[in-house]
From TrEMBL, chain A:
Keywords from the UniProt entry: Cell membrane, Membrane, NAD, Oxidoreductase, Quinone, Translocase, Transmembrane, Transmembrane helix, Transport, Ubiquinone
Keyword NAD: yes
Native species: Kibdelosporangium phytohabitans
Gene transcribed to yield this protein: nuoK
Subunit structure: NDH-1 is composed of 14 different subunits. Subunits NuoA, H, J, K, L, M, N constitute the membrane sector of the complex.
Name of this protein: NADH-quinone oxidoreductase subunit K
UniProt-listed InterPro entries: NADH_UbQ_OxRdtase_chain4L/K, NUOK/Mnh_C1-like
Single GO cellular component term: plasma membrane
Gene3D superfamilies (alphabetical): 1.10.287.3510
Function: NDH-1 shuttles electrons from NADH, via FMN and iron-sulfur (Fe-S) centers, to quinones in the respiratory chain. The immediate electron acceptor for the enzyme in this species is believed to be a menaquinone. Couples the redox reaction to proton translocation (for every two electrons transferred, four hydrogen ions are translocated across the cytoplasmic membrane), and thus conserves the redox energy in a proton gradient.
Membrane protein topology class: Multi-pass membrane protein
Pfam families: Oxidored_q2
UniProtKB/TrEMBL annotation, chain B:
Annotated protein name in UniProt: NADH-quinone oxidoreductase subunit J
Biased segments, Basic and acidic residues type: 194-209
Annotated EC: 7.1.1.-
Location(s) in or outside the cell: Cell membrane
InterPro entries hit by this protein: NADH_UbQ/plastoQ_OxRdtase_su6, Nuo/plastoQ_OxRdtase_6_NuoJ
Membrane topology according to the record: Multi-pass membrane protein
Disordered: region residues: 192-216
Gene3D superfamilies associated with the record: NADH-ubiquinone/plastoquinone oxidoreductase chain 6, subunit NuoJ
Cross-referenced PANTHER family: NADH-QUINONE OXIDOREDUCTASE SUBUNIT J, NADH-UBIQUINONE OXIDOREDUCTASE CHAIN 6
Segments crossing the lipid bilayer: 23-43, 50-67, 73-92, 112-130, 162-185
Length: 99, 281
């Protein structure tokens, strides 16, 4: 086993997250799939930090976590305000711009 | 020439091998992470999805620690599984656990195409990475992490090389906090008084000026399922709540027939013989 296996695992996790974003209709679950994709990228960054023998990748992963936290806060607030006006958390029902 | 290249490649392959303990932990954690991710996609209930994602994130956190990133491993567990997933669960509980996915496909064949695209993307990524990085020799972070200096070195890096991005993240966090407050704010200070509500009613802002008639008013029975009767004897449909409207009609059939007069209502004299018998005893 080599560190490449971690990269393969993270590629699979990223794909699962992307498919989840396409398939699921509940906005919160879609959001969780985005989080999974961010986590997969973090695993890649940590693995590359180890392969290259430099801490830059870990610092980058740290920044990704900060941005993800900010994104979660704003995204969940948006979902809450959509839910408050439309009484639904489904991405299909938030189609005001469509018509 | 080719001989030495082969020797070098062999040496690279030797070095690229990780320790047995790490291999064991990887083969335990990787199926857990993958299973969690798949479970998250396929779970019908959103809370189960969140729990599966927690499993994946915990396995990733342990993997970070195994991969010489102890600080990130702990941050992963504390921030992601601790704070962010709790936030998710909090919002799930607010929105309502039952708001599960609709099975209706708005775009035809979307799921099939998503699966095909996913398999294609996975194939491309996996073969690409496997092809490009098989003979990579990892340098390792033993030097940077010597004596538990991982956190110190990350901190030094953040406050020297990455100082400007770090300052930018502070601005980002403040913006996110403000944004969440603005989006989550509802103005409760301007609550209407009774007088204003009454005026608005008669100005026509509501459907009707008076409250809805209660069920059973002027009717022959006082069940909630019985609609109120208007003075002319007709049925007031607004008096029955929407929940009863939605119940199966056979459960209300007898009530409806009673109101319609198909079944004679309870006779006041019907109780008399029984009462007389009671008295006889």
């Amino acid at each position: 086993m080599t560190p490449t296996y971690y990269l393969l695992l993270s590629a699979l996790l990223f794909t699962i997250g992307a498919v989840g974003v396409l398939v699921r209709r509940n906005a919160i679950v879609v959001f969780m799939c985005v989080e999974l994709m961010l986590n997969a990228v973090n695993l890649t960054l940590v693995t590359f930090a180890r392969i290259n023998g430099s801490l830059d990748g870990q610092v980058m992963a740290f920044f990704v976590m900060v941005v993800a936290a900010a994104e979660v806060v704003v995204g969940l607030a948006i979902i809450m305000s959509i839910f408050r006006t439309r009484r639904t958390a489904s991405v299909d029902d938030a189609n005001l711009l469509k018509y | 020439m080719s001989n030495s290249a082969m020797l070098l490649a062999q040496a690279g392959a030797e070095v690229a091998k990780v320790s047995t303990g790490e291999a064991i932990s990887f083969w335990i954690l990787a199926p857990l992470a993958l299973g969690g991710a798949l479970g998250m996609i396929f779970a019908r209930n959103a809370v189960h999805s969140a729990m599966f994602l927690v499993l994946t994130m915990l396995s990733l956190g342990v993997m970070y620690m195994v991969q010489q990133a102890p600080f990130l491993g702990f941050v992963q567990i504390i921030v992601y599984t601790g704070a962010i997933m709790m936030l998710f669960l909090f919002v799930l509980m607010l929105v309502g656990r039952d708001s599960s996915d609709s099975v209706v496909e708005v775009l035809r064949g979307q799921r099939v195409w998503a699966a095909i695209l996913g398999i294609g993307l996975a194939g491309l990524l996996v073969t690409g990475v496997a092809e490009a990085l098989t003979s990579v020799r990892p340098v390792g972070l033993a030097e940077q992490n010597a004596g538990g200096a991982n956190v110190a070195n990350i901190g030094r890096s953040v406050f020297t090389d990455y100082l400007f991005p770090f300052e930018l993240t502070s601005a980002l966090l403040i913006t996110a906090a403000l944004g969440a407050m603005v989006l989550g704010y509802t103005d409760k200070s301007k609550r209407r008084t009774q007088r204003e509500t009454a005026d608005a009613r008669f100005r026509g802002e509501h459907d009707r000026p008076s409250p809805l008639p209660g069920p059973g008013v002027y009717a022959t029975a006082n069940s909630v399922a019985v609609p109120a009767l208007l003075p002319d004897g007709s049925i007031a449909p607004e008096s029955v709540s929407a929940i009863i409207e939605a119940t199966a009609s056979r459960e209300l059939a007898t009530d409806i027939e009673t109101v319609a007069g198909a079944i004679p209502g309870p006779d006041a004299h019907a109780l008399k013989p029984a009462a007389a018998k009671e008295g006889d005893k």
